[in-house]
Structures are given as C-alpha cells and as structure tokens.
Design brief:
Blueprint (H helix, E strand, L loop, with lengths): L1 E10 L2 E11 L4 E5 L6 H8 L7 E6 L2 E2 L5 H7 L1 E4 L11 H8 L8 H11 L1 H5 L10 H13 L5 E5 L7 H16 L3 E5 L3 H7 L2 E6 L2 E7 H5 L2 H7 L3
Parallel strand pairs: 3-8, 3-9, 6-7, 7-8
Antiparallel strand pairs: 1-2, 1-4, 4-5, 9-10
Helix pairs in contact: 3-6
Length: 233
C-alpha cells in the first residue's frame, strides 16, 4: 500500500531523516520505534505532506504522492493523528469530528460520527463540550476519531499513548487493534516500544534519522539489542 523509498528530510541545515525506506502492506499494523529525536515524527509528517523530502519518493498503491499537498494526501486516503492530539480547543467535540470530514463530499458523515461515538462512548457524552475541556485521554480519543472521519485507508498515529495513564494506554491500543480489524491499515509511531511491538505485524527501528533494524514485530521483542535499548530489559 505505502512505499517510502530513500527519503532525505532536512530542517534547515539539519539532516533529520537519512535515506529512510519502509513499506506498509494493506491490512497491516506497522510500528516505528526509537528514542526521542530519532526522526519518527518527521517521517510521518513527510508522508502526509507537512514536510518535503529533498530526495527519494513516497508512493501510495504504486502512485507517487511526493509533493502533494496535505489536503490532496487526505483525499488520496491517508490521515494523520498528530503527536499531542492537536484538537481545536474552542470548538465542540462534534465540530472537531466534522472538521475531520472536510474533504468528503458524500452524505454519510452523520453515520460516521455515530460510529465514532459508538467506538468512544465518552465522546458521545461530551459531544457539545469544548474540546479544550476534555482530559488528555478524551482528547486522544477525539483526535483518533477526527482522523477516522476522513475514512482513511491508511491511518498514521503519532505517539498516541503520550502522557496517558496506564489504563488509558491499554484502552487506546485496543482501539488501534479494533480500527485495524475493521479494515484500516495502521502506521504507528510510539515510544512505548513494548506496547507498539505487541500489536504490530512488523516494525522499524530508527536511530538518528536512519533505519537500523526492521522485521517481524514478534522477533524484535526477542531481539537482545531491542530488548536492552527500547524495552528496558
């Protein structure tokens, strides 16, 4: 489905991502793990057009999307749930969800809002409440729901567990599994390496902007280097 090939991304003179290549096949959950500053979020932002690759290519189902605007990439079927939630705090929960569907022209948006409310009952209870008054966990639910409102074929999730209590972390990861089982392919960036690997089919390890390891997620859990560096074992 997604093929990222040899991308190089810069912040000014800083070479943040170095010849990164990765693939995501239809139906998979693929995780990118690594330390702070490794380039994980930069890769996601480049895929969705918020940053530009200096060289290399990004293809969705065999067609290059490098150079597309973020809006065009959403219409092509990719949505990003950004790090830090980034909800619109002065808008209601429901208005935030409606903004997630801004690129759609069909008449099934109300149906999909109800689907999100079924997935996240707490959002249904707070549908008229301003998003800025929600807890961190509720804002993560809202950001995820907003991403799903574009009906993406590929959902990118950037640090969904950041700052959440352990019980909410498990709930968010179960939701990711549910979304995937309903037919959405997932590319997940996550510092909680153990949780990320536990739900992923495959994974990539980034260090200083470079892929240093890739493979089956279960095998990575048993990899001594990964266990020592990222799983705290």
């Amino acid at each position: 489905m997604l093929d990222v090939k040899d991308i190089n991304v810069y912040y000014g003179a800083i070479h943040a991502v170095r010849k990164v290549s990765l693939t995501v096949n239809s139906g998979e959950i693929v995780s990118i793990i690594g330390a702070n500053g490794a380039g994980k979020s930069t890769v996601l932002k480049t895929i969705v057009g918020l940053l530009r690759t200096k060289t290399g290519d990004i293809a969705l189902e065999g067609k290059s999307i490098a150079g597309f605007s973020p809006a065009a990439i959403v219409r092509a079927g990719i949505a990003l749930v950004p790090e830090g939630r980034r909800v619109f705090p002065r808008l209601s929960v429901e208005d935030n969800l409606l903004l997630g569907a801004y690129a759609r022209k069909d008449n099934e948006v109300p149906k999909d809002i109800e689907r999100i409310y079924t997935m996240f009952p707490r959002l249904a209870e707070r549908r008229k409440q301003n998003a800025g008054t929600l807890s961190g966990g509720e804002q993560q639910m809202l950001a995820t729901g907003r991403g799903m409102m574009s009906r993406p074929r590929l959902l990118l999730l950037d640090e969904p567990s950041m700052g959440l209590a352990p019980v909410l972390v498990h709930q968010i990861f179960q939701t990711i599994i549910d979304i995937n089982e309903q037919g959405t392919t997932i590319l997940l960036v996550e510092q909680n390496a153990h949780m990320a690997l536990s739900i992923a089919d495959r994974a990539y390890v980034l260090e200083t902007g470079t892929v240093v390891l890739s493979g089956d997620a279960e095998e990575m859990i048993d990899n001594d280097e990964v266990r020592c560096a990222y799983l705290g074992e």
